[in-house]
Design goal:
Order of helices and strands: HEEEEEEH
Strand order of the largest sheet: 1-6-5
Largest sheet: 3 strands, antiparallel
Strand content: 35-45%
Helix content: 25-40%
Number of strands: 6
Number of helices: 2
């Protein structure tokens, strides 16, 4: 499991995150961004924290775990 992927993402005030049908949508005061999540990756929003979870231990999933966490952090 990725060390980067394990870290939670703090959501600033006024930012909403929705995850449905493999697409993450981040809506904030400066606009809206969307990204398709490919692979066995789960997204959970707990209060003001976003968690990216690898749902299995395959090499491909572990590689995408840290990638998607970094991309969502930038969004």
């Amino acid at each position: 499991m990725s060390r980067i992927g394990k870290m939670p993402i703090a959501l600033p005030a006024g930012v909403e995150v929705n995850f449905a049908n493999g697409i993450v949508t981040v809506k904030g005061p400066k606009g809206t961004l969307s990204r398709k999540i490919v692979g066995n990756i789960g997204i959970e929003v707990e209060g003001a924290t976003l968690l990216v979870k690898a749902l299995d231990d395959k090499t491909d999933t572990n590689a995408k775990h840290g990638l998607y966490r970094a991309l969502l952090n930038g969004m």
